[in-house]
Amino acid sequence: MTTTIIENGRLIDGTGSEPRQGIVVVKNNKIDYIGDASGFTKTGDETVIDAGGNTVLPGFIDTHVHMMFEYAPLQQRLTTPFSYMFYQAMAYMKKTLDAGVTSVRDALGTDLGVKRAIEDGLIQGPRIQVSINALTITGGHGDGMQLNGDVFDISPSGYRGMPNGIADGVDEVRKKTREMLRAGAEVIKVHATGGVLSPTDHPEFTQYSFGELSAIVEEAQFRKGIKVMAHAQGAEGIKNAVRAGVHSIEHGIFLDDEAIELMKENGTYLVPTLLAPVSVLETAEEVGMPQSAVEQAAEVIEHHKASFTKAYEAGVNIAMGTDAGVFRHGTNLRELSLMVESGMTPMDAIVASTKTAAECMGWEDKVGTLEEGKLADVVIVKGNPLEDIHSLSDPDNILAVLKDGELVKEQ
Asked: What SS3 class is residue 165?
């Protein structure tokens, strides 16, 4: 049995409790002890990691990523062989781990084979929950058909293991949900509204009807016990999704008071992804973002921040998510800075990125907090993030990362 002791660290356990000095003892892949050093007797056979007076936290969780791609100029996408994306994704996953993110929920684009390759140790990456591909209406967000008739999807679909997500009407969405479940989906992703990157719609454009969304939720949740996550930016689409029983609202840019009250009543999670439109503007020229995306990103940023602030102050469940893949992987923890700048306390931002994120994914029994019996996903970060939350934005300040008890990054 392999035993590792992390000592000389400030412990922030992810529960919201005050930081304390102590040690974390890892046996094989689980946390065996956390607390005062005097409460554990060393045998001398342990591996000791000295945190150097820095901060020890649970592995961070990003509940909205796209591990298989990063937005790139059109010419580059057209001249890149199909299989190359799988090798690129290996680098994206390593960057994600190095940023301190040990678990992710993939919001479309990653198939079951990639998940299994991680679990079987063939490649190194975060623990992953897959949605396979997103359901979308014809002509809506996620339909890559351009005005000239060509199809340019951000992420390839329609290949083995990655069903195409376009479906219209109750019968079609029910069947399409079954296809995603057959392909290995652990959460169903649906586009309930338009989006910033859509070439033919607007973020406030309502897509699926209440009846279609209800059929998706019924098929996923009631038959398989699987939750539904909804890309939903406009208020009407958000309310349709919440009333239909969707588990989490992704983005939530144009939340109104009624939507916030509905989310509170139903226990619906908000995954804000504040970093997404900010990064679109920052990288637009470099990656060749279409002008429509640039204009829509600039339009929504202030609405986005205001909606987040209202939801937070109202007590809506908030789980950290970023939309990494629309921008560079490995920059995930910038999201915490943006949440704090929009009114969240640093401790609440950490809880949203650990405990609440795990709850959103249904993984609260195994990750999200430093507690005995949970999987040993542990991060050591430089300094005290409660005093400088912005320090987490720099992956160089992530000094060490353990996933499943294995040291996957050290400096």
From this structure: coil
Q: For residue 147, what are the β-bridge partners?
A: none
Q: What is the pLDDT of residues 200-231, one digit of tens each?
A: 677 888 999 999 999 999 999 887 789 999 99
- How far is 203 from 196, CA to CA, in rounded Å? 6
Helices (H) and strands (E) in the chain, counts: 13, 17
Neighbouring CB atoms inside 10 A of 130's CB total: 24
Instruction: Confirm whether 310 is a catalytic residue.
Output: no
Dist. CA 101–CA 121, nearest whole Å: 17
Q: What is the pLDDT of residue 204?
A: 85
* Model pTM above 0.85: yes
**Mean pLDDT over residues 1-26, rounded?**
96
Tokens 């909606």 label which residue?
307
What pLDDT is attached to residue 254? 97
Examine the residue annotation and report whether 366 is marked as an active-site residue of this protein.
no
Catalytic residue among 111, 323, 377, 404: 323
> For residue 340, what are the CA distances in angstroms to 260, 309, 323, 356?
20, 10, 18, 16
Contacts of 182 (CB under 8 A, 6+ apart): none
Q: Cα–Cα distances in Å, from 234 out to 107, 214, 259, 299?
A: 19, 18, 10, 13
User: Which residue out of 95, 176, 189, 403 is catalytically annotated?
Assistant: 189
The alpha carbons of the chain give a radius of gyration, in whole angstroms, of 21
